[in-house]
């Protein structure tokens, strides 16, 4: 027996509501995935330079003709820059636009990274590593502040997890990538590639 008109109309409305809820849920899931991906990629591209250079220490020692200890100090000079920038951002963060600061930091980071491809001496190399540390720390600190301000309480856990995952991945993948590129294409190509990664992070 055919259903009364009122029953058919009610079932039609239920079907429309269920479909709308399904579409809304799918859009929300897609948006959450994209947000998580962007956060993870930003974290990865922010600190990838910090760890990558450590994987090519033997090649750098040969290229500059210095001791491993001297090269180790030069490579890790970036941590000094990170400490200075972290303190500066903490003091003046209220005056800094978060997103603009992140973009500028990562874009500027590409400059010392690219210059490392053609460095004439160890002192200049060390200075450029300090500059890298300044830019990396500024982007890192501002991103954390931005996430804290923009994410709701429900989203903060997933955002933090994505950011930590990106940082951990930058350590592992950055080392492998740097070692592989330096071995096959040379030190200059390695630094040029990472400069492009810096620009990708800004984008």
Descriptive notes:
The protein has 203 residues and is mainly α. It is 86% helix and 0% strand. The longest helix has 48 residues. It is elongated and about 90 Å long. The N and C termini lie far apart (62 Å). The model has no long low-confidence stretch (mean pLDDT 86).
Euclidean distance between termini CA atoms: 62 Å
The percentage of residues in β strands lies in under 5%
Tertiary shape: elongated
Residue stretches low in confidence (pLDDT < 50, at least 5 long) are: none
Order of helices and strands: HHHHHHHH
Helix content: over 70%
Mean pLDDT: 86
Total number of helices = 8
Major sheet details:
none
Alpha carbon gyration radius: 24 Å
Structural class: mainly alpha
Total count of strands: 0
